[in-house]
Write a structure and sequence with these properties.
CATH class of the largest domain: Alpha Beta
Helix content: 25-40%
CATH topology of the largest domain: Rossmann fold
Oligomer: single chain
CATH superfamily of the largest domain: HUPs
Strand order of the largest sheet: 3-2-1-4-5-10-9-6-7-8
Radius of gyration: 20 Å
Structural class: alpha/beta
Largest sheet: 10 strands, mixed
């Protein structure tokens, strides 16, 4: 298994490296740290060439310093990629290296521990062909060394089966407990559904139980897996009512609007993204 970490010498970059180390240790994966820099323009004069050389040297130094901070038990390589668009350059590098997860850091500037979206992060979360793990601000200082439990938000929309299968495979590989969560946001229920609140709650419970039963069929005997219904007036309130611990990660699926085999952060996932202070892994939509 291989993880590609998007790096830049900022607090967000440090958060990404720390989350990459956490996931690499958990999944017994190798780590590649990558910086994307703009290519030298054709016909550049001496001044531009010197600037490009200086940027390349700085990028190499930043990568060396980031790798040096990682423990010896994590297999690490570093790469400088050239592309005018950092997000597209990272996606190309992820494909080239056959990476399984792209790890990025939040932009920072928000509430400590809460996710925020910068331009590059936003672009990746709407175009990546592989799962993307996003580190919350401050993870480099407050994050756990290994994953404790994998929480996965379950639903019945297109793409849910791939999310479910990804969560099952991840739990087995990492030997970590899985928590299946069915989210019920009363105020966010579409008014045209005209479903009484108690009926919606019972439906969510039945769905959680069915998913738990299916997970138990696919997991080894006695594998730790649980299910619960997260209920609240809003999605943010429902997800905030759950108990979270150091080392937890949450896994969500892509919007139904996503192209096949492509990631697209939808409305529900974006609300969860802003509400939690744990790393989030967003899984692409499967083939139609």
């Amino acid at each position: 298994m291989k993880l590609l970490v998007a790096y830049i010498a900022t607090s967000g970059g440090e958060d990404a490296v720390s989350l990459g180390a956490c996931l690499a240790r958990t999944f017994d994966a190798e780590l590649e740290i990558c910086i994307v820099i703009p290519p030298e323009p054709a016909g550049a004069d001496d001044a531009v060439e010197r600037l490009s050389d200086a940027l390349d040297s700085a990028a190499r130094r930043w990568l060396d310093e980031a790798a040096a901070r990682l423990p010896d038990d994590i297999e690490t390589t570093t790469t400088i990629a050239e592309h005018a668009n950092p997000a597209e350059g990272l996606i190309i590098e992820a494909r080239r290296t056959a990476s399984d997860i792209l790890v990025i850091g939040g932009a920072g500037g928000g509430i400590r521990g809460r996710h925020t979206l910068g331009t590059v992060v936003n672009d990746i979360l709407h175009a990546s062909p592989i799962p993307v793990a996003v580190a919350p601000p401050g993870f480099a200082h407050l994050g756990a060394d290994e994953v404790r439990e994998i929480t996965v938000t379950i639903g019945d929309r297109p793409g849910a089966p791939l999310l479910f299968e990804t969560a099952i495979r991840s739990g087995i590989r990492a030997h970590r407990p899985i928590r299946l969560v069915s989210i019920l946001a009363i105020d966010d229920m579409q008014p045209w559904r005209n479903v009484p609140e108690d009926a919606a709650i019972e439906s969510a419970r039945r769905h959680a139980q069915r998913t738990l039963d299916e997970a138990r069929k696919q997991l080894p005997e006695h594998f730790p897996v649980t299910s619960t219904v997260a209920q609240g007036a809003t999605i943010e309130e429902a997800i905030g009512a759950l108990e979270w611990h150091d080392g937890d990660v949450v896994m969500v699926g892509s919007s139904r609007l996503a192209a096949p085999n492509t990631l697209f952060l939808g409305t529900t996932a974006a609300k969860i993204f802003r509400a939690v202070s744990v790393p989030m892994i967003v899984v692409p939509k499967g083939s139609d």
